[in-house]
Design goal:
single chain, 238 residues, 6-stranded mixed beta sheet, 4-stranded antiparallel beta sheet, 8 helices, 10 strands
């Protein structure tokens, strides 16, 4: 098994609209090792969302190579891309994206349903994962019976239930107040300290400071890639 979770090698992305071409990424390269915690930052139009879509196998590079957990993503057809998203990636979104009429256990278990796991096993696994994010006693609650922070914890549990190689978080504290944001950042630090590889897109420097490493993107290029020597531990966050 490779020590690298992700390798991005001279990746470009060009969008064509009629005669107009927009070069969203202009030759981006970096490597993310297993167990790293990386924040990707950049202003609107910088290319960070395009980069996140490529890392999440929601889009393909125009040129260059992307390797995820040792697999060359560029060689995969659409069905294989869907399979690798399910197996290798976990997604956490700003808006939680929970099913409103479904309780926490079934929300968390949804990826296991698509993976063909039996109902008994997927609900057992989902409940265990809710326990890992501090919601073991909220399994039967629906989203409208949970606070914003609790809903995001359910979303994190759902992202982790398939034991993905990489956890992708897109503005994970964007809909949360400052106190709840700190609690969610503490959870991410705990998950990372437990060995999870995390990539987080954020515009907020306060959120990014919890990551071990910050990659800044501007005009489709990586303009800086720095490690922090003062990352708070999960205990220090709380």
């Amino acid at each position: 098994m490779s020590e690298n979770a992700i390798v991005i090698d001279d990746v470009t992305k060009i969008y064509s609209t009629g005669a107009l071409e927009v070069q969203a990424l202009r030759g981006v390269s970096f490597t993310i090792e297993r167990g790293d915690y990386v924040a990707i930052m950049g202003p609107s139009g910088s290319g960070k969302s395009t980069l996140m879509n490529l890392i999440g196998c929601l889009d393909r590079p125009t040129t260059g190579r992307y390797t995820l957990d040792g697999i060359d993503v560029g060689t995969l057809d659409d069905n294989a891309l869907a399979a690798i998203r399910l197996k290798k990636l976990g997604f956490v979104f700003q808006g939680f994206n929970l099913l409103s009429r479904t309780n926490a256990i079934k929300n968390v278990a949804l990826p296991l349903f698509y993976a063909g796991i039996s109902q008994r096993e997927r609900e057992k696994t989902a409940l265990a994962m809710l326990g890992e994010v501090g919601l073991g006693d909220r399994g039967t609650h629906k989203p409208n019976e949970l606070s914003g922070g609790q809903q995001q914890r359910v979303a994190i549990a759902r992202a982790l239930v398939n034991d993905p190689a990489v956890l992708l978080a897109d503005e994970p504290t964007g809909n949360l107040d400052s106190t709840t944001s700190v609690e969610i950042m503490a959870l991410f630090r705990h998950l990372n300290e437990s060995g999870r590889t995390i990539i987080m897109v954020t515009h907020d420097p306060e959120t990014a400071r919890y990551a071990k490493r910050t990659i800044r993107v501007r005009d489709g290029l990586v303009v800086s890639d720095e490690r922090s020597d003062t990352v708070p531990s999960a205990l220090e966050v709380t």
